[in-house]
Design brief:
Elements lengths: L33 H4 L6 H18 L3 H17 L48 H7 L47 H18 L3 H25 L12 H20 L3 H17 L4 H17 L5 H24 L6 H23 L3 H18 L5 H16 L3 H18 L6 H16 L3 H19 L4 H16 L3 H18 L5 H16 L3 H19 L4 H16 L3 H19 L4 H16 L3 H19 L4 H16 L3 H19 L4 H16 L3 H19 L4 H16 L3 H17 L11 E2 L2 E2 L2 H5 L8
Amino acid sequence: MNSLTTDRANSSNSCSIGSSKRKRGSISFADQTEEDVVATTNTPAQNDIVLLNNLGVDCFEHGILTDATKCFQNAMEIFSSRPGGSITTNLTSMSSQVSCISLDSSSQSSPDKVLVTTSAHDQDVIMEDAESAASDSEASGTEKHQLSTAPIQGSPSPPRSEYDEGMTCYNRPLRIDNSKSDDYHSTAPTLLFNVGQLHSLEGDDTTAERYFLQALDILQQRFESNHRDEGMELDASARLDNDVSIDAIPILHNLARIYYRAQNYKLAMDMYFRALDIAQQDEQASSSLANTLNCIGVLFFHMGGNTEKNATKALDMFNASLVVRKKLIEQAEDPNHNSYKLLKQELATTMNNKGRIHYMLGDHNAALVTYIDALKLRREILPSLQLDLAASAYNLGQTYHQLGNLTEAMELYQEFHSIITRIFVGKNHRDLAIILKCMAQVHHDQSQYDEAARLYYKSLETTKAALGDFHPEVASLLNKIGNMHYENSDFSSAIRVYEEGLVVERAVLQHDHPNIVVTLTNIAQSQKHKGNYYAALERYVEAHALQKAILGDKDPKVAVTLSNVAQVSCRLGRFTRAFDAYQEVLRIRRDAFGDDHVEVAATLNSIGLVLFKQGFHGLAIESFRESLRVRKLCLGSQHRDVAVVLYNIATTHLEQGDEELATEYYAETLRVERTSLGNDHRDLAVTLQHIGQIHRERGELDVALGYFKEALRIEKLNLGDSSTVVARLLNKMGNIYLAKADVTNMMQSFTEATRIYELCGETENANGDLEISGYNFYCLSITNPECAAAA
């Protein structure tokens, strides 16, 4: 399940490309020394370039983007007007090549290499009857408590705009070092980078990419120029100069973020690993190293963090980043300075990212510890109305939810709800819809259906307002609401909601998407529970056809749906169709699992039932016996499913008139049921009644009465004294007492049975139920009507 991502605007190492001095945070004009302000040449235009660029930085940091744009553009125009200073001539012709900088090919990191170091001196951091379970299971098709829904199965969601994961560590324009204002290879990359930042902020990543790529190209030229001046021979394995390579890190990060947002993870990974290689070369780049390690970890998460391989790589990166971040905090001189708070904020961000990996892998205890630490840090340094604080509260609440601690989960969900409703006042925001869904799920899990329904429908209204009526998250939410109605046995409402969800899914998903199969199956299940077998069969057949198109005709999942087709066909009396379907199910399961598997045994049992209903008792017993053999082999001789087959064999022998064999198998059924279920399970009551009936028909009335009495005790224990099931048992016992001439117990049994039927409102329906030696007892009420009410 994806967790909320965090850190809206993480650290921005706002520094100068071309400057060897690295300072955290922005440098305002008031912070500049006299030497910085004084121009290093006597050309006014050169001073203007510096002033305009740095003024643009100030405008950007104060949110005055229009003025910032003008400043950067003017600076570029002035620079371009100087002899040899053109920096725009190649913009339209720049290709999207990403190998602008020559790194050492022998040591360059790659996505398959996750061995990283914290610095040059640090060590390496390195898913009842098995058949009924398959057919009656609820196929919800969605994981619980996901904050965001992936548009394609198995893929994570695109990055969110409101939340970041520490990927915006170089998202501000840079200043130009006054001492290098006349250096084309130092000034031009800065101007290009800053203009690229503005385009990136406006969402024009295509144009931003062009500017960033040319900035890299000019740095490469600077590198080559330096080597020529020094008379050095250039080759593909040559590293960038230290000063040039560090200047490339912000550009590489921004290019990587563009590709990351476009979900082009291969290109993004290439950029980040180039930055990592550079950061590992320079001891002063510890902040850059921590940021890059964190970004690579996030990328591995989005490339499939729920797979063990990528998850391991992501954890390696996050752990290495945490080592560096903690060291930077230890080295910080002033705990009260903003830079110290920023370091702790970055630490919390990486902790949150690490927690997401643990959560996605199902290691909720590890996620819990990490999320608690992240939330604690954020509560220390962030204001109460801050989205990243809300994100940590949500993630921790989500983890508590998965661990079953619903009280803690609800408290944190409510905290998240409180924050975002104040931040997004009056807005139908997507995250408001998500948290309403999560709160509804807590009530749903506690079977508090009324409150769950209120919150679910409120979430649905908000989701539609935020994303439109036709969106994958609308379909996912409708599925959850349908599940709630299904669990509450409100099958009519479940069908209505599932049908609505089906319309949405068919509008926003591909025609053969697995979620459509899930919804068709859920509709069929609900129709089956309502007794609408024709409607159920129609949806099952539709689901089966779609599933075959997706998975082929040999997948075990196809067998489950085909088994449902067979089951409903059997209930409709279409035994030939049911038999053929079960035979196909048997073929699929034997091919997939072999002959000796519980799913094969379940199918053999179902085939036996169809043969029994068709009157082919001998064939039915053969099928039941093979099922019995496999179940004993797989489950042992004392399992409940073994008792089910023993019962079916006994009933088939009884139907054939072989009471001796029937009694033997019923007795064995009863023994296994007592062993596997205890003495108070309702399955025992059914078996006891069959044994009692055999003894009654033999005239062994006292023995029969004993079995019926025990069955009555079990049914009263499970259903209470006023169930119609209890009434039917009392009726049978009354007839035994009648046969024994025990009038007192006979009248007590018949009277109590009559009372229960009338209490349950089944006076008319019971005419065929309550019988005395074959005569309808309720006929007496017609001849002798009830007395008039007392005067």
